Amino acid sequence: MACSETSETMPLVMNWSIEDTRQFLNKQGFEEDTIKILCDINKLDGKCLLVLNEHDFTTEPLCKLNLRDRKNLYVLCKILQRDNQNTLIELGILENHNVSLYSPQATYNKLESEYCESERVSPPISDDGRPRYPPEKRKALLSFLYVVGVTWITAFVMVIVHDRVPDMKKYPPLPDIFLDNVPHIPWAFDMCEVTGTILFTMWLIVLLFHKHRFILMRRFFALSGTVFLLRCVTMLITSLSVPGAHLQCEPRNYPTGGNSLFGDLAKKLSQAYLIWRGAGMSIQGVRTCGDYMFSGHTVALTMLNFFITEYTPRHIYYLHTLSWMMNMFGIFFILAAHEHYSIDVFVAFYISSRLFLYYHTLSNNQALMQRDSTRTRVWFPLFSYFESSVEGIVPNQYETPNEIVSNICNFLKGIFNDVRDHLISAVKSSTATNEVIESVSRTIVENAKDK
Predict the structure, then answer these.
(1) For this structure, is 344 an active site residue?
(2) Cys-Cys link to 289, which of 156, 187, 249, 391 (CB 3.0-4.6 A)?
(3) pLDDT in tens, 405-440
(4) pTM, whole model, 2 decimals?
(5) Where do transmembrane segments lie in this chain (predicted)?
(6) Residues 302-325: pLDDT tens digits?
(7) Would you call 210 a catalytic residue per the annotation?
């Protein structure tokens, strides 16, 4: 249907006369008998066409129309209602508690339909009908602080579980189908971390050129932080035996003394800082044991892979293929190095991928958000906060290097102007304070002279 093209050359739907409606229906291909019933006999104008509902299609005269025209008219009405939601709000047909798609208080009319069980008329996305994608840099900063805090907690928990690792002589490696049938490859774990580094570099390049980089950043930080926070719980509550005899894992012995409590805590914090600084990577000199359920390396590889493939154009299939291959090869290298059990890797991949998909399913489907908004706020508080202003699927739009440089210059210029304004206001305030002090001093001196 070409209703958008027709509406550009005609008055607003609300202002259509019977003759305008007749011309519109004629251009849409409706039969003359149908147009005669609607416009000549029932005097259908633009306002009546706009407010037709499902009940009208089950009663005369619409139920008397032939099947083709009745279906086409139904679809046409839905398109017009979608494109004229502000008008429906003014008429009181559609309630507007809040324009935001994600408002927890927003409730909209549900109409029983002959075509489906129930339907939801969505509120207008924005004043101009286009979705908004505000960068909200403050939220990006909060998500970054969140993931930094989680990585600190993870590092500290890794120190604790290392000291609780079971004795290798008393608790040998558990039976594992993959580890029992694949020989140990000493250099495989380093290759896994090299693979992860390459994926991370690819992700940084995507962030650099993506127009909505701040939305991507806060999603990446929020999801990564949440998965690693869950990992802290799983590796703390149960200590698995060391998966390979080649691993030299023994609890650290801390010196005891009068200040053993504080000394022990200081030692653990020092070890946690070394793990945090090296990002838990063996190529950075970090070696830990006991942090098996589930694999943090698999989480990192999977998250990077999913974000790269989600926020790059679909036609760049070779990049997506490369990303998936690196993800799978990275997982293979983890197992080939006998650094994790197979169940550690499987659970890590499953949790990371499911959480990514659930998060993006909710953020991309406003109907799910509206229907279970209260439940979403309870179970996904970070999601409800970070995605409250994002309307619809984030498009993969990119900026040129010139635009990136221009944005950086404007950002720095804004900071400079803010600092300058702050200094000017501080100087003015200081000057005013000095004037008050001088005035008070003169008054005191004059009073002293009079005495």
Answers:
(1) yes
(2) 249
(3) 888 888 788 788 888 888 887 777 777 676 777 777
(4) 0.66
(5) 140-161, 187-209, 221-242, 292-309, 316-335, 341-359
(6) 999 999 999 999 899 999 999 999
(7) no
